[in-house]
What does this fold into?
Amino acid sequence: MGQVTFNNLSKFFGSTNIINGLNLEIRDSEFLVLLGPSGCGKSTTLRLLAGLETVSSGTISIDGCDVTALEPRERDIAMVFQNYALYPTMTVAQNIGFGLKAKKIPPKLIKEKVEEISDLLGITNLLNRKPNALSGGQQQRVAIGRAIVRKPKVFLFDEPLSNLDANLRLEMRTEIMKLHRELGATTIFVTHDQEEAMAMADRIVIMDNGLIEQVGTPTEIYFQPKTRMVASFIGNPSMNFIQGKISQNLEVNTAIGKIKVNTLLNSGEEVEVGIRPEKIKIVDSKSRVNEIEVRVSVTYVELLGPRAVVKMKHESGQQLTSVVEHDEIDKYKVGTKISISLDSQALHIFPRIKD
It folds into this structure.
């Protein structure tokens, strides 16, 4: 079992509040990703769970046992760091088996476990090498091997792929997910990379300024953002936002025209209407029952392999971004005026936060 519970957890560094009353339950065997901008508190949360930082207030429990005041070695947790933290004077085999040796496990059993884990990770041929003779990806596998050889209740990963190149990141991402399926241990993974989070997580926790903005599956986070912060942070390119005011007949009066909405917000309330770039299309002859038509000028087109990012501007100054397929690029010529449609079924309404 590896159920983790944060109860009203807070962390101060001097007068600075890094974590502010965090409440979260992480399920046994779940792959949970902490995601958010730099400085949001995600790595601090991980370090509090590991016992590498002291809790200012609140509690941390693992399987119902309060571990808040326990030393790191007493928590049955293993952590993989961003910089791998391998011992440079030890061989790969010694690095992987170090934790077992510290527990005074018999050498023969340590050797068996190290060989088992190295085979699982595909690094058996590296056991006699030292870290400085390994590539970044190989060092990462050794760090993971050192973590899983003890079979802890909870695995912690603190941005473990950030030092790797794009292709190796993708390869290691696949390897970590494969290991998670095979081992079934509770895994908490910290990253600032939303693509990484969306690809790996059972659930994602979006954090900002030491608070949880939303907890949900990748699908829920992307298609049902609960706050403007989540809506703007998730997605690349990010969501378009159009400022306006709710009128009496459930329309939002905006600079680009009236937008029909289905909202519980009060008449006269200032809001922002959000729409994903892929939900903005060029007007064609097809039926547009649920679409809102807008006239814009194309200002920029950026080709990204099979897709392109198109930036547009309304005469009011409102800027919009769309994502289109490669075979549609010819319809979007820089400097030309086009009619675009906004899918009214894909709109998100957020209260406007004034500066």
